[in-house]
Write a structure and sequence with these properties.
The chain is an alpha/beta fold. It contains six helices and eight strands. It has helices at about 15-30, 50-60, 75-80, 100-115, 150-155, 185, and strands at about 5-15, 35-40, 60-65, 90, 115-120, 120-125, 135, 165. The strands form two sheets. Strands 3-2-1-4-8-5 form a six-stranded mixed beta sheet, sandwiched between helices. The chain has a two-stranded antiparallel sheet with strand order 6-7. Helix 1 links the parallel strand 1 (about 5-15) and strand 2. Helix 1 (about 15-30) runs parallel beside helix 2 (about 50-60). About 30% of the residues are buried.
């Protein structure tokens, strides 16, 4: 049964009050329920931290942390790494929306392929545009299985995006450089 795997979902937050309700609701309404949602507030200046605490009171799968403002995702990532409990983790941004079956589909695909990392389809959404870019598989092919080296090359060419279901064991003892520009993509 695929629900045996705990999936840790990590979302760093900084001044995200505009997006948090919709983003967190989309995570909580997953068809795959064995999740923990780890929210790290990076000393927001708006109402973000209170919104996070209110959600945590309503759902015991949510854990909220507040840290000193570090200004990079890498600092939040290094902060949360020792706190990941899941066999798998998924990194997301504070303004991302999940389809209801996102986690379930990725876990199923991992069970089929035994891959270390599973990339979902992604759609860029812009409020002021009618046509949004979609990334479906690699060049519209969802059956592609890549080596780590090829996946890295395709990511550097922007053929792959950085949102994926990862085996937590891949990063258990890692430390991510905290001075890199665009550090979330670097990780």
């Amino acid at each position: 049964m695929i629900n045996n795997y705990l999936v840790s979902i990590f979302i760093p937050v900084y001044n995200g009050e505009k997006y948090l309700n919709e983003t967190i609701q989309s995570v909580l309404h997953q068809t795959y329920s064995n999740i923990e949602l780890l929210l790290v507030d990076d000393s927001s200046l708006d109402n973000s931290y209170q919104i996070l605490k209110d959600f945590a009171l309503k759902d015991n799968r949510i854990k909220v942390f507040k840290k000193e403002n570090g200004q990079t995702v890498a600092k939040s990532f290094n902060f949360i790494l020792p706190l990941l409990n899941g066999e798998y983790f998924y990194y997301s941004s504070q303004d991302d929306l999940f389809s209801n079956d996102l986690i379930e589909n990725m876990v199923k695909r991992q069970n089929e392929t035994f891959a270390d990392t599973v990339l979902p389809d992604l759609e860029y959404y812009f409020e002021d545009k009618k046509v949004n870019k979609k990334i479906i598989g690699l060049n519209l092919d969802r059956s592609v299985i890549l080596s780590g080296q090829q996946a890295l090359k395709d990511t550097l060419k922007w053929h792959n995006h950085g949102f994926a279901l990862f085996k937590t064991s891949l990063i258990n003892n890692e430390f991510f450089p905290e001075d890199a520009f665009d550090s979330d993509e670097f990780m």
